[in-house]
Write a structure and sequence with these properties.
Blueprint: E1 2-6, E2 9-13, H1 16-22, H2 29-49, H3 59-62, H4 69-92, H5 96-116, H6 120-135, H7 150-171, H8 184-195, H9 208-232, H10 243-256, E3 272-275, E4 281-288, E5 291-295, E6 299-300, H11 305-319, E7 322-328, H12 330-340, E8 343-354, H13 366-377, E9 381-386, H14 392-404, E10 430-435, E11 448-456, E12 461-469, H15 477-492, E13 496-503, H16 505-511, H17 518-530, H18 537-544, E14 549-557, H19 563-574
Parallel strand pairs: 5-7, 12-13
Antiparallel strand pairs: 1-2, 3-4, 4-5, 4-6, 7-14, 8-13, 8-14, 9-10, 10-11, 11-12
Helix pairs in contact: 2-4, 2-5, 2-6, 4-5, 4-9, 5-6, 7-8, 7-9, 8-9, 11-12, 13-15, 16-17
């Protein structure tokens, strides 16, 4: 034991040997055990699959054991290995049920390895992990994730594919014992038959046929049992915004809604909410792939934000979710990082137009001005109204058109999208529509050609939520409606309008200026290249037409290692990546436009919803 003197204080520093004997820190045990369990699972599978994985040192003893013991042990080793691989991720996330299953499976896998292949390394490793799990069981307290019975079908598909792949390895792991020369078709047939418990066309010499048969049967039984378990276990549906929660959030927005342009998007009903102890602030979130994803700033009084953030972090810890915030303002980012110790990364900028400063006059607005005048000469008219001012027929047309003109199979948007139009509770939202009467028009939406939907931003602002247009309409519909909305804003009491979010806007703007360095130019070039698939540069260019002021938006995260996972979760939430199973028995019910599609050269965001389009 060594000591360190600092003034009048003496700090005892344990020696390196003492630290090793003490073992790993409790908080690091779940990650360590999860990685090690994955290794043990691979060892179990290898012990059951490959005959020469471990040479037996007591072969004379095994010769007097019952002949079926070897095949059974091989099947047990493979089953335990596959299950341990499935549990490794849950252990890293401190899941209690994963801990319980691992405590049972580790001894089973160790026994199977010792009986069939005498793998002392695997036995010792399993024993060490079991001791760690039992000693630090208090570290595994995380509650279950939201889940539904769709995961049973997903498990069946994935486990079946994995079982067939592993089965092919098992079938081909005894090349010297195969009778004849079976082809790939016979091998796959043998695997499928074996998974269902039947004898296949491939034959082996000696006891190998039993070993392969039991192993394939174990894979099939494992697939069936896990699927049945997932199908009949109690559901834990994802939390949703209740009516009482929505009422409380609306009250907070009525008092503090002018602080953040994204505040109204907290009313999405596929989000959950945690309130501060005083009820004066709230954080809304959604859990996506184990990431607890909040969006925008907390709602309510800034002084009460820390209480809501503390509740948010406590909920993330209770379930072992990865906490993250996407699209918060600079003030929000400062509060999040100060209260939680998390880090922040600038994502891009939000385009905000001050109505009093907007004008179509001047050389800078020449292109927009000419486009709008040309469209108006072609007979288009516009209307900008509150949703409550639309008739029932008009509202139904807007809803149908917004659904039919959507350019993707799934609704996109999360952090900067409301996800609905014309809800009875959203009468204070705004609708801008473009119209043109055409002779012989058979559109189910009448003379409606384009729709913009805005949500309130406090008492004197509105935030763009949705842009949809008939693809057969003239180019520039979005420019026309944005200009119409800005010009109508004074009459509606609107002083500021938030447009789209431009991802990495600063890099794009600085990278095209004279004097930009090679690194910045290369970064801009990469962003321009990615813009072929994601609306990065196009959104920036589109917003820049209206000469907005730019407000930075940030992502808050725990560690840099979490960024890939958070990025994938954001893409799922925003609708760019869909991992949900297809609806095989339900046809999509959405009206289809009669018009044919036409390329919109005037607006790169012709069918894009407001949101982080290139997350």
């Amino acid at each position: 034991m060594s000591s360190r003197i600092d003034g009048d204080k003496s700090v005892q520093v344990p020696s390196r040997g003492r630290r090793i004997l003490r073992g790993p820190r409790p908080e690091s045990v779940p990650g360590l055990v999860g990685t090690a369990v994955m290794i043990v699972g691979l060892l179990d599978i290898a012990a059951g699959v490959f005959p020469r994985f471990r040479h037996s040192k007591i072969h004379a003893v095994t010769e007097v054991l019952p002949g079926s013991l070897g095949p059974f042990a091989a099947a047990l080793a493979i089953s335990a290995g596959v299950l341990l691989l499935l549990l490794a991720h849950g252990l890293k996330r401190r899941k209690r049920r994963a801990w319980r299953a691992a405590v049972v499976l580790l001894p089973a896998g160790a026994m199977a390895q010792f009986t069939y292949r005498h793998s002392f390394v695997g036995v010792l490793l399993a024993a060490a992990l079991l001791a760690l799990l039992l000693r630090h069981q208090s570290e595994f307290k995380a509650l279950p994730d939201p889940r539904s019975r769709w995961k049973a079908l997903a498990n069946f598909v994935l486990m079946s594919a994995g079982s067939i792949g592993l089965g092919l390895v098992i079938v081909n792991s005894h090349p010297g014992r195969v009778v004849g020369n079976p082809g790939l078709y016979e091998q796959i047939t043998h695997v499928v038959y074996g998974i269902f418990g039947f004898e296949g066309p491939v034959d082996y010499d000696g006891q190998v046929s039993w070993t392969v048969g039991y192993s394939l049967g174990a894979l099939g039984m494992l697939t069936a049992l896990t699927t049945i378990y997932l199908a009949f276990r109690p559901e834990h549906p994802a939390a949703r915004l209740t009516g009482d929660d929505e009422t409380k959030i609306r009250e907070l927005l009525a008092k503090h809604g002018g602080r953040d342009s994204l505040g109204h998007f907290a009313l999405r009903r596929d989000k959950a909410v945690v309130f501060s102890p005083s009820g004066k602030a709230a954080v809304t979130y959604r859990v996506v792939s184990g990431v607890m994803l909040a969006s925008g700033d907390p709602i309510g009084d800034v002084e009460a934000w820390p209480g809501a953030i503390e509740r948010f972090m406590a909920e993330a810890k209770a379930h072992s979710w990865t906490p993250a915030v996407v699209g918060c303002s600079e003030t929000g980012g400062e509060v999040w990082t100060r209260e939680t110790g998390l880090d922040a990364l600038e994502l891009g900028d939000e385009a905000i137009v001050d109505v009093k400063d907007f004008s179509l006059a001047g050389r800078a607005m020449r292109n927009v001005r000419q486009m709008v005048k040309r469209i108006e000469r072609n007979g288009y008219t516009t209307k900008v109204r509150r949703v409550s001012e639309l008739t029932a027929v008009e509202l139904e047309q807007v809803r149908g058109a917004a659904e039919a003109w959507r350019g993707t199979d799934t609704e996109r948007g999360f952090s900067m999208a409301l996800g609905r139009v014309g809800d009875p509770g959203d009468g204070d939202c705004y609708i801008a529509t473009a119209h043109r009467v055409e002779e012989g028009d058979t559109s189910p939406f009448g003379d409606l050609k384009a729709v913009l939907h805005f949500v309130p931003w406090g008492r004197d602002g509105m935030s763009l939520e949705l842009m949809r247009r008939d693809r057969a309409a003239d180019p520039g519909m979005n420019e026309l409606l944005i200009v119409a909305s800005l010009e109508a804003s004074p009459g509606l009491g609107i002083e500021k309008v938030s447009l789209n979010f431009a991802m990495f806007r600063a890099a794009l703007a600085r990278g095209e200026k004279i004097g930009a360095g090679p690194v910045l130019r290369m970064w801009r070039g990469l962003l321009v290249f990615l813009s072929r698939w994601f609306q990065i540069e196009s959104l920036y260019k589109f917003n820049e037409k209206f000469r907005p002021r730019w407000e930075p938006r940030f992502m808050v995260y725990r560690t840099s290692g979490d960024l890939p996972r958070i990025g994938f979760a954001v893409m799922q939430a925003e609708g760019f990546v869909t991992v949900a199973l297809p609806r095989l028995f339900a046809a999509r019910r959405r009206p289809k436009p009669v018009r044919t599609c036409a390329h919109d050269e005037g607006s790169a965001t012709g069918q894009a919803d407001r949101g982080i389009q290139a997350a």
